[in-house]
Design brief:
This protein has ten helices and four strands; from the N terminus they run αααβααβαααβααβ. The chain has 319 residues and is α+β, with helices and mostly antiparallel strands. The protein has one domain: Orthogonal Bundle (Non-ribosomal Peptide Synthetase Peptidyl Carrier Protein, Chain A), CATH 1.10.1200. Helix 1 crosses helix 9. GO terms for molecular function: metal ion binding; methyltransferase activity.
Amino acid sequence: MAVVGGEAVEEDVAVAAMVVAALLSKSMPLLEQAVLDLCCTTLPESVAIADLGWNDFNAVFKSLPTFHEKMKEENGEEFGPCHVAAVPGSFYHKLFPSRRLHFVHSSCSLHWLSQVPPELLNKQITNKGKIYLSKTSSPALIDAYASQFQRDFSLFLKLRSEETVPGGRMVLSLMARRTPDPVSDESCLLWDLLAQALQGLVSEGLIAEEKLDSYNAPYYQPYTEDLETGIENDGSFSINGLEIMVLPWDSASGGQNYDRPTTAQKIAKSMKAVQEPMLASHFGAEIMDPLFKRLMEIIAADTREVEHVSVLVSMTRKA
């Protein structure tokens, strides 16, 4: 997630962070079990973190003094040194030396593709007026997105299997869907509402129609059973557990139930925090505020419920 200056941006990021924190809270028992199982056999000497390409990790580095102080408070002055470093690159490329990682955790990332499906980039397939899959998507478009995810996920597993020691653990959490239908509201609703907001700006002359037609999201929410199949086909990892987590938006704010306009505002803020860098680079920064204001109004007027569906997978690297 790219973070730039300004109180409004910080507030948007804070709302999105609450959703991620809620998902992490639900996934913590499985994460802790994976670490405990690992440390019963071998104790890793380092922790490596990889994130989306547009996160420069400045926020992580700024938090290091507080982190070190907390370690001293909890473990005393004799606690061993903790070395922190950043490794540039995409997690769809090799990041670490072979057989060096004991524990890998990918959180809320693998639903982002390495690129928009090539069939859309070279205009073999069009997606007029839309920015992702929808109820009107052609079978060819659906297949293009599914194939791109399968290629990316297979590559990710291959690379991490090379970097992970035999017996090492890997825990993945990503947005997913419970239904085999790739254009269900569960995975496409918010994208469809965002497309409606963009269409509104086209009708007002703020965005060229061609500009909208040339934008497609590098994103895909896989069916949980397809994830299992992909892991089994790769053959490098055995699955220890798979859990589906469903998080209503309101529960990301302390479990409070809000009225629809308030919920719409929170959803729009969260989407803006995550998607503004990509949208602004394509459509221009000047239309971001009117775009997300319109999106908030569209969500408030829509009666359908919105839920986050994610999957948590715990695996062990085979010998």
